[in-house]
Write a structure and sequence with these properties.
This protein has 330 residues and is of the alpha+beta class. 29% of the residues lie in helices and 24% in strands. An 8-stranded mixed β-sheet has the order 4-3-5-6-7-8-9-10, with helices on both faces. Helix 5 (219-229) crosses helix 8. The chain is globular. Bound molecules: 2,5-anhydro-1,6-di-O-phosphono-D-glucitol and manganese (II) ion (2 copies).
Length: 330
Amino acid sequence: MGFTTLGEFILDKQSDFPGSSGDLSSIISSIRLAGKIVNQQINKAGLAKHILGWAGSENIQGEQQQKLDVYADEQFRKALENRKMVCGIASEEEDDFITFDNNNKDAKYVVMIDPLDGSSNIDVNVSIGTIFSVYKRVTPVGTPVQLEDFLQPGTAQVAAGYIVYGSSMMLVYTTGHGVNGFTYDPGIGVYFLSHKNMKFPEDGRIYSINEGNINSCEKGVQDYVKYCQEDDKATNRPYSARYIGSLVADFHRNLIKGGIYVYPATSKNPNGKLRLLYECNPFAFIAEQAGGIATDGKRRIMEIQPTELHQREPLFTGSKNMMNKIASMM
Ligand code: AHG
Ligand code: MN
Ligand code: MN
């Protein structure tokens, strides 16, 4: 690992945005701070009973909220509000968007967040993550934030990233100039640039899908999974199935090793399970910046016009040649 810290990298990259006020840098900094705080609690989760398990509530999508879901949501909200660069956020864990109009009415940016992704894996000590995405508001600065500021297509993202709380903590992000990854050194409390200009291998050998749902997936998906399982020396098949059940960790592995992640429409989730604003769009931006592809099976994810905050979409994302193969079967 080199000696470039995330702090230095952010300052250096500010020159990518001529005339920049540094607001975006400040947003990334608040996320890196909240990530450290959440990571500390996650590391204690097995020991600290007050932080493990169900919070006793459900989010608007009817999913059980874990105590860490609620905790992480609070930490990211506070960190983002505190820096005064964000006028509102939308979170997977909140019913509606939250405005910071009282304190931050001159701020230009809104942030979408999945504070804790893969939260069903908390209690079993498996990698989880945080996903974020940043947009410029479309309504005038100084006026109250509106729903339309949040319902922007993914092509309007100015930054997106994720934190993976794994065997080590990593923060990976893009501002539209490639993708870079930083590994946290807990001994000194600093993230170092460890994965410079990350690129999906064009070919991969890993497919990630919840195969328990295969019978209710559309035929193209079933055919592709069969293709992955066939014996063929020339293309090095069968491929390996890997599915953690934390999108952040599954995507991160596939980005490094080469692979494809698919959460298609199923009979239980006819629009797929993953949320367009908090999960699909940020990963689509990162995937494209890393030379990969992200679709809903047919359409480019980032061109979908959202109509509601918690909208779900099928997600197909990963290495270019694998994505082209599945597209040819859909
Ligand atoms: P979240 O914990 O934020 O609700 O997200 C869970 C998501 C995603 O991380 C994962 O890939 C997927 O749900 C797993 O769903 P299945 O259990 O249906 O496979
Ligand atoms: Mn999630
Ligand atoms: Mn979540």
